[in-house]
Amino acid sequence: MLRRSASILSAALAAVVALTTLTACGSGDSQGAADDKAPLEIWVRKPPGSNTEKTHQQLAAKFTELTGVPAHVTALFDDFETKLQQAAAQKKLPDLIVNDTAQLGTLVKQGLVREVDRPGTKGGDQLIPASWDAAKGADGKYYGVPFSAQTFGLFVRKDWREKLGLAQPTSWDELDALATAFTTRDPDGNGKADTYGYVVPGSTKRGYLDWYFSSFLWSAGGDYFAKDGKTPAIGDGSSVAAAQRLKDQFCTAKTVVPGAATAETTQAHPLFETGKGGIYFTGPYNMARFDKSLGKDRYEVIALPAGPGGRSVSLAEGENAYLMAGSKNRTGQQRYAEFLVSPEGQTIGMAGDTDGNVVRLPVNKGMDLAAVRKDQRWLVFDKVYREAGRYVPVVKEWTPFRQASAEALNGMVADCGSDPKAVLGKLAGTFAAELTKQGVGS
């Protein structure tokens, strides 16, 4: 979301002073003596008054009922991170926050969170092993407890596909052929050439195009870095092949909805639901929206077929429970995080088939999603996450890499005379420089 740069700068500078104090005093001491009965202040990144806030309130109430420890939830959405910085500057950090997995690197760098003992976390061994990757810092230590996961699937206009007599795609070639058919064969039957195959959020803002591209990169056998994590692999052959395929969709087949290069997700969603494009790689959170705007029977959700790399890989995201530095009630922090990942906590968080869900996909491997939700489409995403989900690389700060990648890819698809090999070769150089900046080198 947009924030005023001046506010960020002033908050960040103030936070530095506060965080120095937090570090010097040690956790617990900066807010008084340790007290395992002290009330817990919990912040969640949800719209105030929303059903998702109500679900978090239910979680807090159940925790208090079970433990006797008071827990108060504050829902914040706009400028969440800025308000957290302000709280740090005032030495009034909440005890725990539930926020995006992508925020981990920043929170660790700023010293706002404390380390989590993975083996010592009750129920931690019952979590899907991959979910812990979202809580691991660049130093190999853990700074959060996984709470909710999500991954992505192909939303396809089923009515268009069936009208054209085509089967569900089982390979990338079949997927591209379906996109071509949606573009050239008038699937909505209005006699106009006004439909396209792919809906792509191709904006550089917040690195959207890279966010979209990552699943295709990995499925093509490409990667951002070599296995050592110290050498860029974004310019290697498989990575270049994935980029070439993306460019071909924009420039050769012309199967991408016009305007995609500047579209954020807020502009991309309507392109699918209003019938401009028929294939959209997106998350399960859009099902409720599209059911209302488009109609549940007019589209289907399928897993991304295996790519040239021999398998299907899908970007995994979600939320962690972060234990904040300086809490008086470290025991309560730990117990709350453990409750969130328990079967009871995960069930409450899933909120059935309602829009109050704060657990999109459970991270507790013992959970039977079908027993909680009747909408079987969730099982597609659950299977993809468990079998093919992959989080972004573990580096100190992922944002600079994602942004650089989005800008390079965006420039490539916007210029049909560009050379993907040269573009990604230059990007690899940018990656190498950023790795060095972050203290990593080959």
TrEMBL record:
UniProt key word Transport: yes
GO cellular component: ATP-binding cassette (ABC) transporter complex, substrate-binding subunit-containing
Molecular function GO labels: maltose binding
One GO BP: maltose transport
Signal sequence segment: 1-26
SUPFAM superfamilies: Periplasmic binding protein-like II (SSF53850)
Family of this protein: Belongs to the bacterial solute-binding protein 1 family.
Protein name per UniProt: Multiple sugar transport system substrate-binding protein
